[in-house]
Design goal:
The chain is mainly β and 175 residues long. The protein folds into 2 domains: 48 residues, no CATH class; 78 residues, Immunoglobulin-like. 3% of the residues lie in helices and 52% in strands. The strands form 5 sheets. It has a 4-stranded antiparallel sheet with strand order 12-11-14-15, with no helix packed on it.
Length: 175
């Protein structure tokens, strides 16, 4: 028997999970997955999304540290509806959910990345170690489900970077 605890930042974005298993009459730690979100800055990027007081705002890169110090979170708020806003001539989706799930996590041999939004398919997937070195690049080829072989890896945590409508990163655990 196992139980999983989910942890969220003040903005409602999941930041980690901890799994425990029942052993010898008590709950014992089994695995932990930390989820990292980031915004990739391309040339010409002047504003980034933050969640501040329950609303998504786009702030200048120069003002970002001040907002983060006052409790804002990097990225879009999770409780807003699907609507589109315009800023600096670019479109950005508000309140967008992650377009995929990864299971089983932790795993010993394989994980599956399942895209659950037909309008948002992965264009590339990369498996990285915690130093950011690329271990493997996967071409999803437009597939809705992509299996990734982990059998050759050592036990530990790895970063899975999925590029779709934006770049998403999550942590997977190899047992």
């Amino acid at each position: 028997m196992t139980r999983t605890s989910y942890y969220y930042n003040p903005c409602g974005t999941q930041t980690s999970t901890e799994t425990e298993k029942w052993s010898d009459g008590s709950w014992q730690p089994d695995s932990r997955s930390d989820i990292y979100y980031h915004v990739e800055l391309t040339s010409g990027t002047k504003k980034v999304p933050i969640c501040h007081n329950g609303k998504t705002r786009y702030v200048s890169i120069n003002a970002l540290d001040g907002f983060l110090a006052r409790g804002a979170c990097l990225g879009e708020c999770t409780e807003e509806s699907y609507e589109s806003i315009s800023f600096a001539g670019n479109e950005a989706n508000i309140g967008k959910k992650l377009p995929f799930i990864v299971y089983p996590n932790p795993s010993s041999d394989w994980v599956t990345v399942k895209m659950h939004n037909d309008d948002c398919r992965a264009s590339s997937i990369m498996l990285l170690d915690y130093s950011g070195r690329v271990i493997r690049e996967i071409d999803p080829g437009g597939s809705k489900e992509i299996e990734i072989d982990l059998s050759y890896l050592r036990s530990g945590n790895y970063i899975l970077k999925v590029t779709a409508d934006t770049v998403y990163s999550t942590v997977i655990s190899k047992q």
